[in-house]
Design goal:
The complex is a heterodimer of chains A (474) and B (638). Helices cover 77% and strands 1% of the residues of chain A. Chain A has a two-stranded antiparallel sheet. Chain A has one domain. The longest helix of chain A is centred in the middle third of the chain and has 32 residues. By secondary structure, chain A is mainly alpha-helical. Chain A has 22 helices and two strands. Chain B is globular, with a radius of gyration of 29 Å. In chain B, helix 3 packs parallel to helix 15 and helix 17 packs across helix 21. The N and C termini of chain B lie far apart (74 Å). In chain B, the strands form two sheets. A two-stranded antiparallel ribbon of chain B has the order 1-2. In chain B, a hairpin with a 2-residue loop joins strand 3 and strand 4. At the A-B interface, helix 9, helix 11, helix 12 and helix 14 of A face helix 24 and helix 25 of B.
Amino acid sequence: MTVNDFLLMRHELMLVAIALILLITDLMVKPAHKSAIVPFAIALFAVQTIVGFLPADEGVLFGGMFKTTPLISLMKNVLNIGVLIILLQSWPWVNKPENREKMSEYFILLFSTLIGMYFMISSGDFLMFYLGLETATIPIAALAAYTHHQTKSAEAGVKLILSSALSSGILLFGLSLIYGSTGSIYFDQVAAVYSNAPMQVLAFLFFISGMAFKISLVPFHLWTADVYEGAPVNVTSYLSVVSKGAASFILVLVLYKVFFQLFDIWQNVLYVISVLTMFVGNLFALRQQNMKRFLAFSSIAQAGFILLGMMAGSQMGMTSVIYFILVYIFSNLGAFGVVAAIEASTGKILMSDYNGLYRTNPKLSLLMMLAMFSLAGIPPVAGFFGKFFLFTSAASAGLYWLVFIAVLNATISLYYYLMVVKAMFINKTDTPIAPFRSDSMTRLGLILSGLGIFVVGFWSQVYEFINSLSVGLF
Amino acid sequence: MIDYTYTLLIPLIPLAVFLFTGLAGHKMNPKVSGLIGTTGLFAVTILSYLTAIRYFWTDHLHGSGYQAMKAFEIEWLHLTEKLTINLGVLLDPISVMMLIVVSTVSFMVHIYSLGYMKGERGFARFFTFLSLFSFSMLGLVLATNIFQMYIFWELVGVSSFLLIGFYYEKPSAVAASKKAFIVTRFADLGFLIGILMLSFMTDTFDFRTLVSPTGPAMLQAGSATFMGLSAITWALIFIFMGGAGKSAMFPLHIWLPDAMEGPTPVSALIHAATMVVAGVYLVARLFPVYSMVAPDALHVVAWVGGLSSLFAAIIACTQTDIKRVLAYSTMSQIGYMMLALGVSGYGGHDGLGFMAGNFHLFTHAMFKALLFLGAGAIIHAVHSNDMRDMGGLRKYLPITHITFLIACLTIAGIPPLSGFFSKDEILVAAYHHSMPLFIIEFAVAGLTAFYMFRLYYSIFWGKHTHYHHTPHEAPATMTIPLMILAFGAVFSGFLPFHELVTSDGLPFEAHINYGIAIPSVLIGVLGIVVATLMYRKETAVPAKMAGGFGSFYTWAYHKFYMDEVYLFVTKKILFNLVSRPVAWFDRHIVDGFMNLIARVIEKSSYLIKGLQSGRIQQYGYVFVTGTIVLVIIFVFIL
């Protein structure tokens, strides 16, 4: 391998290096100085994020198992942005006395899953894809059970690992059927010979069930609420944003690059799943009182919207998916950031606890309102444009009924997003959350999400840039 | 090409003043706001006169007639390849003339208001709104295209609404402002329809393209017909509907008398000199189109104008509120202008009516603003609007008296005051075009002289009224504008309008037609004499006369029950037959459907909650079932 080959893998190699450095540092630093690891890790990851934005080449490694393109680099960078914000927002939680002992574990596990996602997105064959997928999943189960002295957190870890074992089983079954029927695991070769023979359709359906689990699409979503609720808030936001984003990226790539012969079939499959997902996600979100569960179901419903862009099968469809995920990262992290900040300082997590928040913590409330508006898709914040492009691409593919259903669901979702805003601004209470001031790292993370919600929406070059890298189905 | 880009400042200065005093006004001494507004308008007036002098005289643009030129233009909205909405400044004879009218009257009204509104609550607010109005009116006048005109058209409507309702604690003022806004908005609906039709047919909003003799509008003469009139005729009639609403033409005039609830300077500025003549300006602006491709629409203009002027003049003879008399007089005079445009032809001496209409617009602005400001001074002195509370005021208000008298003589058409010249030209144009209209206007000339002098004598002569406190002359800030405007009213008739403002830009020969001028002066004098006999001293004659006319007098006194007709149509017919069923449908069907959806969603949310049990075995079961169902559907069924 030459230096250039290394450069093609710089995302992965750097992050592996960072994880190793943290591991070694953790062993060498005295317990008294361990708190220095947190800023160190964040700084390292900030470097990683910045380096990721340097121009990237296109190339293939390991005989086709690993490949990278500007589009794939872009996807990794989008994930990096999300992770960076999450790291900033985890500051108060990681620095809690009970977590201080094992704070480097948090970073190392998080980075390991991210490495898995990088490989998954960059994969050129199903083996690399599967390895990446598992590397991305298993450490998350450990993260979900991070505060294992709490029953809920332990339960979340167990539920995640069991569910993901089941889904991996089905996914692997699908992959072996693909190998059995085509004689290859390389994407290019599979794509060249794939047809809609029953065996191959069956293999595809198993594959998509496994992926649907990762993106928590209905009816493969049931783990989501329990895990989101039990896991520490920052892990939840990681699951709902980065993990889901990475799985959506690879799904859209595989659908477009490998299974394009099955376009008619997967369009219908996604149609069914997305309608179910939007409705079920919304109907459950309507009734949630716990903010984490609320956001869990809202993120399920949002995943249903993402499918609209995939189904278009066009360049615009892919652009709208990536763009929406970018917007979704900022909006959801804004919401999770507020929830995390409030939970970290007061331990309160119910929607009714938010009553009258505007009077005591106006800035937090405004950011939360912004995030809710963005998730609901109210102009002029970025969420509106995200949904707008998704709907437009689906409509230009002729899926008018689906767009109608999606609009209907967007309306339903508006109701519960506004319930949060109503709680903060209108509802009165005698015991509002007392005013508090977050530390500077959390605030930086919140400000970044708030800025993103505005900038990504208004700055049309973002969309244009993504569009210039995206590809269509044919 | 001579650079006129600076004319952009003319509308922008009042806008800047509006924004500044509107946003920072409450932090300043109100007087400062007033002075800022007045200074701004002073600058606008200077620029307007400079522009007029350059355009008409020093820049020698009239080699082949005065041409329209765009001093400035930007594209604002790109609708289609051909159709764009631009914003800019258009200079041509009528827009330059209107600049003079608007800036002069507005400046005078600003000065006057410094005295008239002194000590009022909302002094600063008043000047802020005046600036908004001046900006909107100047933007309307300078519009390069019909859509820009429409935008500013609505803006003057808003400013008018704000100023009529200035005393928002008075219920009658609030009602009047709403009435004015709704009636003119209704008319503007017609305007908008007309704009859309016109732009659909011609692919342009631009005035210069529209009126060009080889332009797309001219090719539409033979366009599709509806009820015997071509489509472009209908478009122009709809556009005229907007103009008729703003200019208070019958039957859309009902808002104008009520609009007198606003402060008197506002009545002088908006409801006498500038905004209400916007309809005339609109027709004049599109005149070549009216004249060449839609003569039928022009007939409508002429007859609406003629009938409105007669109708208003009759009502004016019976009213006792001095501002209402002036309001009906305004309506009547605008009717004259409309009629003048309606009877005009295009080019050369045929365009006499066009010139006369604009001429009258100009002179009318001077003398009617003067009358209103004079009325303001009178109201200021006696604290009443009703002429029955007045009498013998000439001793107390000498300056107001003289200027008011000059204005009355001017409007009565006594030579050599300006009203004589402009009215005479209109009568000549009407005489050449249509005898019935000429007879109507001739009669209106007599009526005008009569009701104006009825007003004059009732205020300044007549009975000796005892006042609670001695009325006193208004302060200098109010009398100086009166004198300046009186100067304008006397001498503006000598302006060579036939050389400056003509239908095709070329000067033509105009001279006084004595065959018409002498009788029209005589009937004016007759009106004055009758009024003198009846009202100079308190007599029983007026009451007897009123009795002699019987129910006709009662009808006229009640403004021919137009308000009642409107109320009947809206309240009894529209509300009952349209609004109530629609409201019922909205409340029961539309809302009911929405509530049904909400209830279904809520119910189904309860129904599916069992799915989320928390047991991992069940999750796995659902997962596998889901996969199997997908397989069954997509492998076996499809």
